[in-house]
């Protein structure tokens, strides 16, 4: 196989919506501060939903839109950093729930870059002939690992899941054309969460040096996208849509400026869903696909960045 292409998409958001005004009642913040500094207006917060239940819904939708059944699936890759259960992994819970009996299933944790890293893993497996297809999922219930008394983080995140079903393709100039990813573990503590609950009270929540992550994203993402475009022999203006990790509207604006591309090519849903880490890109992709905003033959860049610190970009033809 030369590469992979996305055949179907799906997504799921928890029912409960939390607005900035709801947050004003919890912490010392304002709707105006959150909107001006991030662009976020509201986010979905899980109540009875879990990483696995949201992922199951997203996967079933992706399979339905691809016209495939769970029995067809050979590989399930779930990107998550907030799964309720360490064992079994979220991907195995999804496999069991959807009845994809033939699939190999495992999780990938690369935080907000997780979906892209999982997509790259699927491409490597499928292009080398190990599997023929894959469900690639990003799912998060970040509200579980957020300190709801810390205004510098709790206003940023939301819960949700997105999934794509991919198959191998022999066609030229179709599907994923190029992919670049990277990690910088030396800056890992800029965005951390110590999962050893109970050892040190308070350590079990996400902690972030927002300015450090902001600087990293606005420097590394344009460089990474430029490299992926170079590999694809394309220039920034050739791209119809930049489907980027949805963390902060200001970060998207800086990246657009670096690439000299108008913001109209950068779809945004963070206003409604906040930062959903690994789920951000596949949820946005699904919304664009369902609303007919992505058409066959269009050129897309997907790019993510986050804890690790990690980053990645991919160029694809839809
Ligand atoms: O998915 C990848 C992970 N994360 C990111 O991409 C986040 C990257 N970073 C960012 O998006 C931004 O750095 C933030 C949105 C997190 C913060 O925006 P900022 O413009 O860098 O604000 P700041 O951290 O420099 O804080 C400015 C002020 C501070 O007050 P003083 O020291 O100036 O008096 C904060 O204490 O804003 C204060 N502040 C708040 N005020 C009201 C911080 N959080 C809040 C809040 N409401 N929620």
Short description:
33% of the residues lie in helices and 24% in strands. The chain is of the alpha/beta class. The protein folds into 2 domains: 3-169, Thiolase/Chalcone synthase (Peroxisomal Thiolase, Chain A, domain 1), CATH 3.40.47; 175-317, 3-Layer(aba) Sandwich (Peroxisomal Thiolase, Chain A, domain 1), CATH 3.40.47.
Tell me what the structure shows.
With 318 residues, the chain is an alpha/beta fold. It folds into two domains: 3-169, Thiolase/Chalcone synthase (Peroxisomal Thiolase, Chain A, domain 1, 3-Layer(aba) Sandwich); 175-317, Thiolase/Chalcone synthase (Peroxisomal Thiolase, Chain A, domain 1), CATH 3.40.47.10. Helix content is 33%, strand content 24%. It is built from ten helices and 13 strands. Helix 4 links the parallel strand 4 (75-79) and strand 5. The relative contact order is 0.20.
* Principal-axes shape call: globular
- The chain-level structural class is alpha/beta
Low-confidence stretches: none
Largest sheet strand order? 1-7-6-4-5
The percent of residues in helical segments reads 25-40%
CATH third-tier fold name of the largest domain: Peroxisomal Thiolase, Chain A, domain 1
- CATH C-level class of the largest domain: Alpha Beta
CATH-level-2 architecture of the largest domain: 3-Layer(aba) Sandwich
Average pLDDT: 95
Compute the separation of the termini in Å.
17 Å
Q: Tell me the β content.
A: 15-25%
Count of domain modules: 2
Tell me the name of the CATH homologous superfamily of the largest domain: Thiolase/Chalcone synthase
Query: Could you tell me which ligands this complex binds, including any ions or cofactors?
Result: oxa(dethia)-CoA
SSE pattern: EEHHEHEHEHEHEEEEHEHHHEE
Q: What is the number of E strands?
A: 13
Number of helices: 10
